[in-house]
Amino acid sequence: MKIQETIRHDGLRMISCSIPTQTRVLVSLSALVGSAYDPIDKQGLFHFFEHMAFKGTKKRNATQIRDFQNRNLLNSNATTSRMQTEYWGVAIHRKLHLLCDIIADMYSNSTFPVAELKKEKGTVLLEAARNRDDDRMAANQALRELLYSQNPIRQFSTGTEDGIKSITRGHLIGESEKWYVPSNTVAIAVGKVSHSAFVREMSEHIPENKAAVIRPLWDNEINDIPKINRRVIELKGRKQSTIMMGCKIADDVSDRIDNVEDFMNSLLVSGWSSRLWNEVREKRGLAYSVGGSIMRNRKLGAYFYTTVQTKPGKERLVESLMRKALFTPLTSKDKKIFEDTRETSLDSIDAGFGENLDKWYDIIFEKIIKEEPLSGIQRYFSEQRRIVKSISLHDAEKMRKELMKPERFATVILKPAKNS
User: Whose C-alpha in 39, 89, 123, 125 is 20 to 30 A from the C-alpha of 377?
Assistant: First the structure.
């Protein structure tokens, strides 16, 4: 595996990760702008870009884009996160030139046809409705609204109905010209790829433009205690209750703290050896799945959450068990859980990414967001292993005590409405 980077004079970053044993290549073009940038009255605007990319360019209409992809690509899609909008495709390596052509065409040459825009609004509204109908996603949304007062993390990233309906072709063109410029663009190729060939293709397909972008700054609200720390939502037609608890954490941390936080998450609430799993699932059979995660958006904000879906009527018991898992100090009695978690973590590191193109892409982009040298990827697994091996039970307890402060937490309960 070899990573190379070329930065064009106008700021376009072109990065390749060569895996010679592969037969495929993944190509991605990303604009460093996402749903966090949505105007308050047009929430869903930047998510809408990815949908419209497949609806027509200066070279191809929607049918021609679809036919080209069906013939030449193994897979293709686009995604929007808080800070990034990404367009990608996977093809057999000998079709690199075709893959770069179609991805760059959709990225740089979208025309946002009015007729397609009107149709696609219906699709996006259905996507938003699907997300709102998912109890865990709904609970997560409610939790973010309790934790944050102004930060865009509290916004519904898919968009609001009013926001989506208000988007016009003019809005898309204006924001595209502002943000979809080389200085705000990262091109990445992972797989069987020649760096020089990739640079040549991207240089040909991405027009030169020396425009610069000015990114906003957000308050991560890390020191703000939730003004309202509990919300109970009753929904009709539900057969289970969803309980979610969480708190804000720092968004910009060292690799060691990042690893200790992930380790603590596995130790307390995520995985088959976790405290929460043992208390809720193994001892009492009160849930099918038990888990938690850390959502970190560097330069924006980050939060930790844990969730359990359980039987109606068991909400109070399960919530108490969740609090016990989070707020009880780690002692020598937890040594076995601690060692089990460490062993699993080390096995995961040793397994590595293999030839998983998505995983290598993710770690490259993580380094970009953290503004760290890409050369560090060569030492990624050895460094991860060193950190995990060095974590002590004392380290985990110190981190738990620092982060798991009851007054910083908010709780959301979604449960069946009475008589539903």
Answer: 89
